[in-house]
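Okay, any thoughts on this one?
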Amino acid sequence: MTIGTESDRPRPGRRSLERALSTPGRRRSAWNLSGFIGNAVLTFVAVVATTRALGTETYGVYVGLVAYVGLVAPFATLGTSQTLLARVATDRSRFATSLGSMLATFLLIGGPLFAAILALAVVVMPDQSVGTIAVLAGVEFLGLGLLAASGDACIALDRHAALAVHFVAASAARAVAGLALLLTDGDDVRTLAAYQLAGMAVATAAAVVWLASNGRPRFERGDLPDAWSTGRQFAFGRVADTVMTNVDRTMLLRFGLDADAGLYGAGVRMIAYGLLPARSVLNAGKAGFFEAGARSVDDAAAHGRRIARPALLLTVAGTAVALVGTPLVVRLFGPGFGDTVWVVLAMALFPLVRTSHMLVGNVLTGSGHQRFRARAQFGAAIGNVAINLVLIPRFGWQGAVAATYLTEIGYLATLWFGLRRRRVAFAPTG
């Protein structure tokens, strides 16, 4: 599908776009892919150990609670890591100040959000332990908040080897925790969360120390308003995306469908492997969207068009591996997880849809249209909640799958037509 036409005349950004496919560009993709492979292996170890230790229903409680605290954890830095990425992609000298604003924001915004998620748990999750939720919230605020933000800083610094270590560190903390629970015959969520928190704290501290070695954080009070003004657009979009991804598991638990939450959570973990190869390409080219988008929307689209074909082909390949591998590995999950195969089959097209809207969305973001993207994400998140409220009580995990497709496809269409209105050519070329 093509929107508009691309001029045959040389563009100002053509040379930089060719560099994105050069040896350094391939090296970035290779480092990202190695990080994702390591992440995939360790995540698999974590899932197998955790499912075997907890069982279907308790694992359902675990994924539901993780999804609940994960709804706001990415908001802990208020999008300032994306602000850092956008700034440093064009001006390396702004790294220290942007890093200082990001770390300050984590304390100033993350702290109150942490308290709020616990206060709301009394109403949203009345049957669950607030203490357990607090420990899980600590894990997710460090992992989805500070550690993920430091990963964006790695991209800004063009240090993709370090980014690969970030991916492995987060999953390693969960894998070690799952194995520790299994080997000690533990079977409760709070113990698992305590093990995870210890590992995540070490990984996050190491990441912050490493970042400081690349530029000592410099806090400038006057920089915060600008960082927050730009970052909140990224933050709202990311939280909306997280709601679309996580809220169904929380709702399955809230409606008392613990076993369905366990099956659906395990299935989502497996089908997510279909996204991993493509994300290596998308991450390698992430800074390029801002660099090209600083010139024009057309240049950002040209950059996106160059990586669209490999990203989509890798998604298809990754999904095929997930579909073939699930029946073989689901036996390792323990009794009660056999229907995970059906969840994965039902979600087979999800990675392709998600990769597509990530590509289109990155074009919009890189070219200065993040506000439109954030609004579209927010609308999709509201729609996802509404559809799940109708479908989950009637159909369980099948309803969650249907709601996911409806909102993801609707969101892709919204972004696509938003891009079309800007008369941008965005189609894979031969």
